[in-house]
Amino acid sequence: MRLNYKILIGLISVLVIWAGTLGQSYRTMKQLESEYTRTVDETLPIILSLEELRFATLRIVSSTSENAMIMALQRNSDVAPVDSDMPTPDAHEVHETAIGISDFERVFEIYSNQVDLYDSADGAIRDLIGSNGTALTDISQRLEAALENNASTAEVLEMKEVMEDAEADILSLIIGQITDERRALRLRQAALRQGIVDAIDNLMISAALAAFGITALVILSSLRIIKPIERLTAAAVRIAKGDFAPLPKVTQNDEIGALTNAFSDMSSNLQNMIRRHQEATDNALASEQRFRDVAEASSDWIWEIGSDYRITFVSGRFFDVTGLSARAVIGQPISKFLTPDRTATADCFENLELDGLAPIRDMRCRYSDITNQTRICRLSGKPLFHKTGTFMGYRGTASDITAEVEAQDIAEHLALHDALTGLPNRIFMAERLDQNLAKILRHGGAVSVICLDLDHFKEVNDTLGHAAGDSLLKSVTKRLESTLRITDTLTRLGGDEFVIVQSEAIQPSGAEVLCRRILQVISEPFEVEGQNLYIGASLGVSLAPIDSLDPEQLLKNADVAMYRAKKDGRNSFRFFEAGMDAELQERKAMERDLRVAIQNNELEMYYQPLIETHGRAMQGVEALVRWNRPGFGMVPPGDFIPLAEETGLIIPLGDWILRTSCRQATEWPNLFVAVNLSPTQFKQQDLIGLVKQVLHDTGLTPNRLELEITEGVLLEQTAYSLMTLRGLQELGVRIAMDDFGTGYSSLSYLQMFAFDKIKLDQSFVQELGKSSGATSIVRTVLDLGRSLGMVTTAEGVETASQRDYLTQQGCNQMQGYLFSRPVPAAEIKNLLLRTYPDVDVPVAKALSS
Ligand SMILES: Nc1nc2c(ncn2[C@@H]2O[C@H](COP(=O)(O)O[C@H]3[C@@H](O)[C@H](n4cnc5c(=O)[nH]c(N)nc54)O[C@@H]3COP(=O)(O)O)[C@@H](O)[C@H]2O)c(=O)[nH]1
């Protein structure tokens, strides 16, 4: 309920109670008034009248008695001495009696009326008084008359006695009546007093009730209004001091309750606002602190200049880096410390104004550090304007980018140069070629593009290792540089491929002269790791604008020409001619087709038997891949395996060969399968894991797998290669050295690793009987194998005499067309049914077609 209703109800209640007690008082006062009226208007007048009657009676009697006494004394000297001074009744005393009688009669009439009016119960007394009064006045008059008539003393005295008796009677009545009236008066007085007391009591009660009511109202108000207001005041004081402890919720459903709850809400809103404000302030402070920390800790600094380009502020980091003091810096022109690069948009600070006071973005400046070294920083900043629009200066940041610039320079150099030789690379060369071609278009002239490939570099690399190859490349670079003019550009594309862009020469003679000079210098021996190496070079020349004005095409043409030079016998040069690139194109087509063939599973495995010499039984097979290229027929592996090696296709191809061979070998329980591993395959990541996985997947036992490697495998990364070979052997797989005797270091490799088998290269076998040297080599190798406890296999056995000689020399196994050509897997089962006891072996020949 609303508070004003409550107060109104309280007031009304107080007023009702108060009115009740006042009414009671009013009634009491009314009674008092009536009592008072009766007392004043009735009893007192009656008493007064009775008193006056008594007085009149006494006057009558006294004056009459006095006259009678005087007369008696005068007449009867016996009774009373008479002297000359003795008074005599005179007219006055007589008159007094008359007045007394008159008063009596007048007062009695008043009294009589009063009795009629107020107290008719006293009518009988009144009548008695009246009759006695009449008797008294009568006797008094008669006495007076008797006196006048000189009645005798006795008579007078007798009459006087009668009069006195009458007086006594009447006085007795009057006094009795007065006594009654006075008693009544006292009773009324008592009643009046009681009434007054009651009235006062009522008034007191009324006042007390009113006071109580008002006090109660005040207390209630205090409790319901003042207390909450006090609490609110205390809360306000608390809040003013920053204490936002929540106020208890009140259920008081009035204005005070609403005020308290509103105050409470206001307090919590205020608290939230202050908290948010505080958080915002804290965040701002933290942000500012972070900013300061970053500004101080980072390599950046903050700067500010005025409209006169003089420094007004710079953060501490600047002083640390430059070793300058604030005094030396503040107020000085910024250009005194920072020099913008000529590449900067505004190459001096004052130009900023000319540039329309644009923001400074990444302005590169040089400055001196504490050690007086030149460093580079990058400036960014924004112009400052007063609200009136007046230019006030600039403010921004600066970052030291010396390391970044250096790294960028290095990166740029690396991006455009070959790391090994320091020569420009393909990108650089392309740019230079573009420039030259653009020049030709504008001014005419000619440019030659010469591709150079070292001859026999692969062998050097393979035999002497990469370090020797690198050393050779550096030496070649030096010689080439020495043959070129400053206007020519020598670049290394990678490996042993170089490109020369020859400009400002008469073509084609200029190119021809240069090529000859190059061939001359390259043909001289190179000393690498204490050895004199003789290499040559194959060069291809393409001319702009004759052959093309397209840089790509020029390069391609030069490459084709170089390829032709190589093919035509190396150590020579060729100018590009139309139609030369057909072979190159064919190579690319083959690569594309081979990729598709691997993906589409178009290759097939053939197997060639390995015959045990004495028993003439097939012990195993060598897996040899075959590719029936659509549209071309069977492609010899000697053509596509090197291509696969060069292009990296050998990895997926080798995986497929290993997997297929192992799987198919499980179909011939008594045969092992020998799989060739090319050098690239051997170098692949986790070869051991791959072989293990294939064995596991196919179910072939490891002792039925033989891996054939060539000496090239051991040429580089020898330690790693040996580790791999041992790992493979630990799997239970046998390792055979293929093409033994064709490399430079065959014998030394036999020392390094315990091969399970040596495969004598077929070139020696086929020279048996023809060349004594070959026969000696065969014998020596077979002896060596025997002495080292290695199985020896002779490849390319085509004739019975070869077979017999090899048998005689103790060769363990033989492989060759004499026994069987490589056959598809399906035919191996047939071959297994046969033995090869005879030299002519007609069956084997028939099978190997
Ligand atoms: N990495 C892999 N290399 C492989 C794989 N399959 C073949 N090759 C290599 O390709 C080269 C040519 O191989 P291919 O044409 O199959 O010739 C082999 C035999 O057919 C051939 N051979 C066998 N007997 C005779 C013979 O009596 N006369 C004669 N003229 N040739 C004969 O010799 C080749 C086997 O040589 P080798 O591997 O050295 O034992 C060759 O280098 C193959 O290695 C392959 O799957 N992976």
Automatic annotation (TrEMBL):
Which Gene Ontology molecular function entries are recorded, alphabetically? cyclic-guanylate-specific phosphodiesterase activity
Q: Where are the transmembrane segments?
A: none
Question: Which residue intervals define the domain EAL in the entry?
Answer: 587-836
Choose any GO biological process term that the UniProt entry carries and state it. Answer: cellular response to nitric oxide
A GO cellular-component term linked to this record = membrane
* InterPro entries (UniProt xref): Biofilm_reg_signaling, EAL_dom, EAL_sf, GGDEF_dom, HAMP_dom, Nucleotide_cyclase, PAS, PAS-like_dom_sf
Question: Which reaction is catalysed here?
Answer: 3',3'-c-di-GMP + H2O = 5'-phosphoguanylyl(3'->5')guanosine + H(+)
All copies of domain PAS, residue ranges: 287-341
Spell out the Pfam families in the cross-references. Answer: EAL (PF00563), GGDEF (PF00990), HAMP (PF00672), PAS (PF00989)
Q: Which residues form the GGDEF domain?
A: 445-578
Every copy of the HAMP domain together lies at 223-275
Q: What is this protein called?
A: PAS domain S-box-containing protein/diguanylate cyclase (GGDEF) domain-containing protein
What is the species of this protein?
A: Loktanella salsilacus
